[in-house]
Amino acid sequence: MKTFYFILGLLAATNCFSQANRKVSTFVSFGANKTLYDRTITNNKGGPGLGLQAVVNTNTLITPLLEINAALFAGTKELYLTTGGKPIESKSDVLSMYVGPIFGATKRLFISTTIGTSLYNNKAHFGLRPSVGFYPSQSRKWTTRVSYTNVFQRDAISKESFGYLSFGVGIKLF
Fold this sequence. Notes:
Layout: H1 2-17, E1 24-37, E2 46-56, E3 62-72, E4 80-81, E5 87-88, E6 93-104, E7 109-120, E8 123-134, E9 142-152, E10 162-172
Antiparallel strand pairs: 1-2, 1-10, 2-3, 3-6, 4-5, 6-7, 7-8, 8-9, 9-10
């Protein structure tokens, strides 16, 4: 009977000190944005950004990704007018919510393509964001990422898209 209790205690202790893998990895990132093209490019040349990425941990090469990003754009903030005399608003802050797959090409290199919405000037616009990232450390607690964002701003003024490049460094929260 002592052997039974010893084995039972040993199994309970082993189970208590083991650690389960987390279902979701969350990263907070800080970065910089550079506008590549826009109808008012001098008004929003670039600026800082803040992001939150959540990756569902699975044992597959392709996993789901959710990105929430905020970007501030600075520039000259000149007044642009349409041929009809209506003002064309510049972008000073952009809030983006994107979702899509992330592909782990290697243990430390990943590629993602997400789609979603970018909100600015009280309007929602559809967008596409491909990214390439790298984990600098083996523990995957840090990440670097380069993203290209294309926002389709289809409105009465023009059908020109808004595109910017982002570079970010992130740290794993949990």
